[in-house]
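FIELD: query
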Amino acid sequence: MFFLLNNLISRNKKLIEHRGDINSQVLENLLSKANHKIESMNLGNVMYKRIFTVMEEALGNIIKHSVRRETKKKYRPRFILEKINNHVRVTCGNLVENQSKDSIMEQIDHINQLRRNELKDLYKKKVKNATISDKGGAGLGFITVAKIVHNKISYKFEKVNDHLSYFILRIDISD
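FIELD: result
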């Protein structure tokens, strides 16, 4: 069961937490902070690359797809990187239009059902037929993440009002 974002980060070793607007400068700052934290953990090159790829995709999605509206503080974009036993977890949240909710759920649910070879084929197909959306994406983000983490992507939507929901994404990264 998926709990509220605050409950998701309890009792784990929080490496980085950011709440507020995310832009390219904040992205660069968070990646720099993560670099120092992860290097000190001696996780190895493969794990290091996985963490950074997931961070870039998650933060990039917030930059590209987050709805920017004045709302309560709890609905501001949020990013958390934490160490949990033998894996690292990325949790992020941002506002999305309710009309986008079904599409996001379908994408993630479909990706979560695929085997590794099917993910690779889907990725190749998307790259071959890629069209860049008006927000600058080609629809590869969730596929890229699923290919490298070897775990299902978890998500939840918390309804804010008739037009907006808070989208929470959780990705566990392990060897």
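FIELD: remark
The first helix runs from residue 5 to 8.
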